[in-house]
Amino acid sequence: MSAFNQTSLAAADPQSLVAEADAAVVTIGSARAAIGQLIYGQEQVIERVLVTLLSGGHGLLVGVPGLAKTKLVETLGTVLGLDERRVQFTPDLMPSDILGSEVMDQDAEGRRAFRFVKGPIFAQLLMADEINRASPRTQSALLQAMQEYHVTIAGQRYDLPAPFHVLATQNPLEQEGTYPLPEAQLDRFMLQIDVLYPDIEAERRMLFETTGSGDATATRVMDAAGLRALQQLVRRLPVGESVVEAILELVRSARPGAAGDRKLAEAIAWGPGPRASQALMLAVRARALIDGRYAPSIDDVLALAEPVLQHRMSLSFAARADGETVRGVIGRLKARIG
Fold first, then answer.
1. CA–CA gap between residue 173 and residue 192 (Å, rounded)
2. In the Enzyme Commission scheme, what number(s) does this protein have (predicted)?
3. How far apart are CA 131 and CA 318, in angstroms?
4. Beta carbons of 84 and 77 less than 8 angstroms apart
5. HSE-up (13 A, CA, CB side) for residue 81
6. Which residues pair with 103 in a beta bridge?
7. Nearest 5 degrees, angle CA 247-CA 335-CA 48?
8. What is the Cα–Cα distance from 164 to 82, expressed in whole angstroms?
9. Of 25, 102, 175, 334, which cross-links 114 as Cys (Cβ 3.0–4.6 Å)?
10. What does the pLDDT read at residue 183?
11. Would you say 87 and 128 are in contact if contact means Cβ atoms under 8 Å apart?
């Protein structure tokens, strides 16, 4: 274990940390079960969304229509006790529609003054539905908020609620009338979470549960303060030296010219920066806590490599012409440390 981690562990009471982690595991398990009562056949998606939120990050949900992405975010807001709002992104959406705007007020004596009316971004959980349908100007309105947790209107700073998370959705099929997310904004998302079709048993259960006379409702398990406490706990979990080295090797090998395999190195046009290492470091801790473990393992690094890296990489034209895919490259990079 590195000197940094040894110092951080020495400053903490191990027994207190274990007791706190045990209580957190129970709470997280209850939240996971409550979400699963309404979202069927998406266990991996639920896990990765919880990893994102426990790590204090933002998530990009990518999947075809009808896979309950919107319902998942609404359910998360209820179960976690967060103030949740939804914005449907469209080509004519303006930055002020998200951030808010100043309006002119006049009092009884005729004096006029500007008053800031907050937009939907002032929520603890913001769902940016079909984010790639908005113009780059509107998409950029989220950049400062997602990284710095405040917005600036007319030179005045307004802090966002804490915690603050953005869960954006994107349809991978329909690209007409959309604007690709710039790399700077993609990098703000901790994980890209692919939402796939449910298996047949989950879909069978869905048929009976959602077409009957009664509708299931989400149950609140925690509140915003509880989530923030869990986020602080995640940051205090120890990380072994072998896991740190695996994170560094994986992320650094995903950059152009860095992989030991020459063909693999030439296939990568651009790769992840240090923010990817930070995201993976937090995400493996959160996944370990969700699984009831006090420290992450290399298996956690391998499990989260794809959602952390796939939206932070691009392949060269020659590699794409040869049929290479980002997922395939990440799989080969994982095999080097697995």
1. 16
2. 3.6.3.-
3. 30
4. yes
5. 12
6. 115
7. 55
8. 9
9. 102
10. 84
11. yes
d(CA 308, CA 59): 10
Q: What angle do CA 210, 215, 219 make, to 5 degrees?
A: 115
Instruction: Return d(Cα 308, Cα 304) in angstroms, integer.
Output: 6
Measured in whole angstroms, how far is the alpha carbon of residue 69 from the centre of its chain?
13
Structure tokens at 139: 């998409």
Residue 103's SS3 state is strand
Cα radius of gyration (the chain): 21
Query: Which token pair is 328?
Result: 């395939």
SS3 151: strand
Beta carbons of 126 and 169 less than 8 angstroms apart? no
Q: What is the pLDDT of residue 7?
A: 38
H/E element, 239: none
- C-alpha 305/C-alpha 279 separation (Å) is 10
Cis previous bond, 238, omega within 30: no
Residue located via tokens 């709470």 = 27
Residue 217 phi, psi (nearest 5): -120, 150
Alpha carbon distance 225, 204 (integer Å) = 37
Buried b (16+ CB within 10 A) or exposed e, 258-279: ebeeeebeebbeebbeeebbbb
- 133, 132, 130, 157: which is closest to 145 by C-alpha? 157
Q: What is the pLDDT of residues 296-312, one digit of tens each?
A: 999 999 999 999 999 99
Of 306, 297, 246, 299, the closest CA to residue 272 belongs to 306
Of residues 97, 176, 93, 169, the one with CA closest to residue 136: 93
Nearest-angstrom CA–CA distance, 218 and 36: 10
* Residue whose token pair is 């009957």: 212
Is residue 94 predicted with pLDDT exceeding 70? yes
∠ CA(333), CA(248), CA(309), 5° rounding?
55
Which residue, 110, 192, 219, 122, is CA-closest to 161?
122
Supply the pTM of this predicted model: 0.89
Output the pLDDT for position 255: 87
